[in-house]
């Protein structure tokens, strides 16, 4: 018989996982309860065209069969009275900061993992009561002060705290101890374990491992042979073991920017376009590398006499696309700069950064079908540039007529465009 005791090290830590329920919809309900309270609501873009994708929906909508990822058109057929709301990320960030400030008042050991969830290490917070009392107080204050429901998991580690917060939704509090793992988790399918996605679960099924309990009992050597170093983690996770600490220093970049000083003055949109496209491509690639999307862009222009102006605007929806960024900065240039004046430096900075998984990236029906192919192409291009340098892949738009001619000359001479030093990076700050 499988001996689970060897996987149950004693731990004195107490971890909370605070998970806001249907966060975006709950925020809109808190802002305008008369319009949204108790109603079937969903957050999606392109509301007018009814071609959007549901990003999140209220629990009332979920009970009617609406789900995340569903097309708005289909959702409206299921529930014609569904209220579809356009995302407001400034509002979400405001409420996110507010609920985390409440949580932070009970421990400085707070790790924000997304806009609507955080871990708290309350091991040293006994002065505020028992773990259950602290969780109840945090939950009550978030509801009373902000009008938002949340679920909280209490456990000896982050993994189990996350699993516990999912046990009772909405507005629940659950305790999950190591000794509870066999009874509560082992009968569940592997894909219900946090950190195990669909592909990993499918591979486990092919190995005859269907449940978390079977994963806990599996041979670690076999798991390592099939999953590499992740195999050892899978074994530990199945037994509820997690050695990760709550890291309050975890912060994502507030902005991502790239500026370039030009070897000569450039004048007019025709000369500026390939430079802006190059800069947009570089910042977008860094954005994707960090798993973020941007909701705003800023254009920086410096003249030969060292005068600098900056102009910014919000994107129509959060994006990781170099194409979206490029269109926006070109629009800023046309709107705010006299094209007859010379430019010596150009910069593109992305602002309002949020984790991609927390964003409402909006696709119309046409883009929804094309998106997997576009993402695969983007990933392939990113991989080539990571391996061979920025100029391993160039789009036609990145090169002016003069630059294109120089590239042809370089190819004929067997040299690279990079050696021509057309652009020199001045700064590169997150």
From TrEMBL:
Name this polypeptide is given: DNA polymerase IV
Binding site for Mg(2+): 19, 116
EC number(s) reported in the record: 2.7.7.7
Species, as recorded: Paenibacillus etheri
Active site, UniProt feature: 117
Keyword Repeat: no
Catalytic activity reported: DNA(n) + a 2'-deoxyribonucleoside 5'-triphosphate = DNA(n+1) + diphosphate
GO biological process: DNA repair; DNA-templated DNA replication; error-prone translesion synthesis; SOS response
SUBUNIT field: Monomer.
Coiled coil: none
GO-annotated cellular components: cytosol
Membrane-spanning ranges: none
An example molecular function term from Gene Ontology annotations: damaged DNA binding
Record's subcellular location: Cytoplasm
PROSITE patterns according to UniProt: UMUC
